[in-house]
Design goal:
Strand order of the largest sheet: 6-5-14-15-16-13-17-20
Number of strands: 20
Distance between the termini: 41 Å
Radius of gyration: 21 Å
Helix content: 25-40%
Shape: globular
Structural class: alpha+beta
Number of helices: 12
Largest sheet: 8 strands, mixed
Length: 388
């Protein structure tokens, strides 16, 4: 078998890249270890920046996002018993849409299949070869048969634990990582929205977040010990914790409902550089991870493949490799800004075990400065909506 671009991984990065290449007349094959049902049902957060929204619409896969996603023009910061609104649109002219990642995946899978794209699920034993030559390939097993896929390029969109990143020799690869000493306890709830926009809350008991998934399903998180066990948390205990951290002096009350999913996620910042080695290119979680506080994960994946699709278009249409050679540098510039913002938001809103009373007061002063200064509010808003 032969294609122009072999893509490993059918997450948002791999699927969107395949679709963008299709629109440019470039062939690709997507290899995914999981089933279609699994990738379309794994519920993950989804806050789309203005630029991500625009690209999905331009690519013809944004109709359901526009119909069903929740367009938000602001976010709220809650601390000291009060909520403070950051007006994203007034400060930047842009907005965000809350639209879960698995819904984006559904839209992209449907688009690739409608275009008769080559999208293979439940693939195993994926092994890229010859990535340091001009004729790379990927060996894999599908439906019990062994295949050898030859390509011009191999794109690793296979996540943090995928096979792609380790192929870049340790002698040329630098990994940067920060493991945070807390996690997020997340729940999905059958309930109407408690607020019109996302609420990021800082409290002496720890951080919490209120988000929406649909008019009837809400996503809520609170800071916890990453080694905790969900079985230690009854529904009553969860609600008591959220009420304690979120309710304020104006009488606002959190809306409860049946909890149908619980889980604890760890928090890390991670970047691997370079994102290119020979004819292998990394995109999305294969190269970088951000704590979800800054709402950047899926947006960075979209930004990566936007750059890659443009670079590959130049290669095939203009016989130019300049953008391919500059891909890693260009992507990392955006990535490090998002890493900074996500780290800053995390530090601003979470409690650290080793924080001194002085540092606690400085954290509160910084929050007060952010909500009272138009310049600082604008800086937060610009980073949040991706207006840079």
């Amino acid at each position: 078998m032969r294609t122009q671009v072999a893509i490993i991984g059918a997450g948002p990065a791999g699927l969107l890249l395949s679709h963008l290449l299709h629109l440019q007349g470039i062939e690709s094959v997507v290899l995914e270890s999981r089933s279609r049902a699994e990738i379309e049902s794994t519920i993950r957060a989804g806050v789309l920046e203005q630029g991500s929204m625009d690209l999905l619409i331009q690519a013809g896969v944004g109709h359901r996002m526009q119909q069903e996603g929740a367009l938000h023009h602001g976010i709220e910061l809650a601390f000291g018993g009060r909520r403070h609104r950051i007006d994203l649109t007034e400060l930047t002219g842009s907005a965000i849409t809350v639209y879960a990642q698995h819904e984006v995946i559904k839209d992209l899978v449907a688009a690739r299949l409608a275009a008769q794209g080559q999208l293979l699920f439940q693939v195993s034993e994926v092994a890229p070869e010859g990535i340091d030559t001009e004729s790379p390939s990927v060996r894999y097993v599908h439906a019990g048969e062994h295949y050898h896929l030859q390509a011009d390029f191999v794109i690793g969109c296979d996540g943090f634990h995928g096979v792609s990143r380790p192929l870049i020799p340790a002698s040329v690869r630098q990994d940067y990582q920060r493991i945070y000493p807390f996690g997020w306890f997340g729940i999905l709830v059958e309930a109407p929205p408690s607020a019109d926009e996302l609420i990021y809350a800082q409290h002496e008991r720890g951080f919490s977040l209120i988000s929406t998934r649909s008019p009837t399903v809400q996503r809520m998180y609170f800071q916890c010990d990453p080694k905790d066990d969900v079985n230690n948390w009854s529904d009553d205990r969860i609600w008591n914790e959220l009420h304690s951290r979120l309710e304020n002096r104006d009488g606002w009350r959190l809306k409860e409902g049946p909890i149908f999913q619980k889980g604890i996620i760890g928090m890390r910042s991670f970047v691997s550089a370079p994102m290119r080695y020979g004819r292998l290119y990394l995109a999305g979680d294969a190269a970088h991870i951000v704590p979800p506080t800054g709402a950047k994960g899926m947006n960075l994946a979209i930004s990566d493949v936007r750059l890659l699709s443009q670079a590959l278009d130049d290669f095939y249409q203009k016989s130019s490799s300049d953008k391919l050679h500059g891909y890693s540098e260009a992507a990392l510039k955006r990535i490090w800004r998002a890493e900074y913002f996500s780290w800053w938001m995390t530090s601003l809103l979470h409690n650290f075990d080793d924080t001194t009373p002085f540092q606690q007061q400085v954290q509160r002063a910084e929050l007060e400065n952010v909500v009272s200064s138009r310049a600082l509010s604008t800086a937060l808003a610009e980073n949040y909506v991706g207006a840079f």
